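Researcher: We're reviewing a set of sequences before deciding which ones to prioritize for further study. For each one, I'd like a predicted 3D structure that I can look through quickly. This is RADX protein. If possible, include the structure in token form so it fits the rest of the review sheet.
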Amino acid sequence: SKLTNLGHLEMTWRSKVHFHPLLVRILHKSRLRYYGKPEKKVDMPYQAYFEVADGSGMMSMVLWSSLCPEWYHSMKVGTVLLLEEYAIKDSYPFKTQPTPGDSQMKRFATIEISLNVRNPPTKISIIPEEKVKPEWGLPEVKYRFITRSELDDLPHNHSCDVIGLVTFVGRTERARKREHGEDFWLYRWAHAVDGTSDQPFILELFATSQPDVFERIHPMTYLVCTQMRVVRNITEHASSTIYLTTSNESQIFITGWHKGQPYTKDTKVKNFIQWTKSQSEIDQITKTVIGGYYPFPRPPDNFSKY
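Model: Here's the predicted structure for RADX protein, in token form for your review sheet.
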């Protein structure tokens, strides 16, 4: 069928009601958002953002309502979609922006693709990877993996991806989203090593829309976290309070979930796998810890400093 592209849509969308089909690849995926309120009667108050791209650039795509439980888990980073009968809207100005792996990619930020059950009812097709043709010109998923030795030089809020061997995972904790509110964020702390430094990555992992992975993080698993943000607490001991926290677009993967993921082709991931092959499993197990209370950043040594 006759296809359009994202660049053409941005130039012509105001003058059209019906749009030609789109072929795009998913580059980023947000956590699932629940926006239900007691006073509003919405059947399926769910929403999820994706960043999708073709040869012309990258644009946001929003999955609405009952399409979320139907499609959210099938739409992975790297998945190629054929979209028909979608809507185009002005983009929502306050949403979070993931950092693209390819800094040269053009971003169409003024509009977004809206996928709904009606008005119009969107038709979504997933194209299997083996049927994706090079002549479609779809970009590959690119990452920004860093090693632990590179972390100390990165600025606050820098976006990166990491891979490491888990040596510690804390119990699940919770923090209020708002003071006096009844909603909580669930999170847990983890340490992961990659052999490039004596220090581990310290990871603050908030529960994403991957409960099956979040609950199964344990020592000795290979952990991949994407779209993490660097947090620097500027104190006297700046080096001891650098850690990584998840963002709205973070994805977490552990042993058993890696097969077929686009990052398996990344050079730093391959280097890490080579390093793990040179390690003694018995030595690593003796250094692992699970559970317990983990206050971080650590309070000062004595009360007068506190």
